[in-house]
Amino acid sequence: MTINKTWPVRLVEGPVALRPLRMRDGQPWHELRRANHAWLAPWEASRPVDEAPEMTFAHMVRRLRAEARAGRTMPFAVTYAGNFVGQLTVSGITWGSLCAAHIGYWIDKGHAGRGIMPTAVALATDHCLLTMGLHRIEICIRPENANSRRVVEKLGFREEGLRPAYLHIDGAWRDHLVFVVTAEEVPGGLLPRWRASMVSGRPSPREQ
């Protein structure tokens, strides 16, 4: 079993922070999920064969904690000015000849468009590439999900291609675009580049 020696960790940039998801996040998590059902439902993972009961929040946290202890996952709460506003998970952490991971995320609609999620993704990516020593970060997004695509475009992730019928989302197998960044592409990390783009108002290099 691989142990992630960099976990648990808290990552901060201004009012945006990533910290481990915890049991007492249950109430704000449920409140946001209810309030954002229509906003999130088209992009939610579903089961092709729905035999098991719906996973509770407590069960999800316990499972994610076990995966984190095993070094395969990092489940973060996204907070803004101390308030719970979303979730970001680094999953599929793989070492050996691949040294890669996936990032997935969601945010409250009322906090979207403020640069919170690009900042959170930059924080998580830099932790993976610069601190943990991973080589490659992937984010897979449905082509129709313009809001999520804007996050990776703002950060300069490279579009690598289409994976047909890649994941079961919202009741059907859906195509996904793959966006990637490798350690060689951002030797100083994503966060400095993202900070510079916010100050200048100019897009990151791959957006231009």
From TrEMBL:
Signal peptide: none annotated. InterPro entries: Acyl_CoA_acyltransferase (IPR016181), GNAT_dom (IPR000182), N-acetyltransferase (IPR051531). Residues 16-184 form the N-acetyltransferase domain. The keyword Transferase applies. Gene3D superfamilies: 3.40.630.30. Keywords: Acyltransferase, Transferase. The keyword Glycoprotein does not apply. SUPFAM superfamilies: Acyl-CoA N-acyltransferases (Nat). It holds the Pfam family Acetyltransf_3. Belongs to the acetyltransferase family. RimJ subfamily. This is GNAT family protein. It comes from Sporichthya brevicatena.
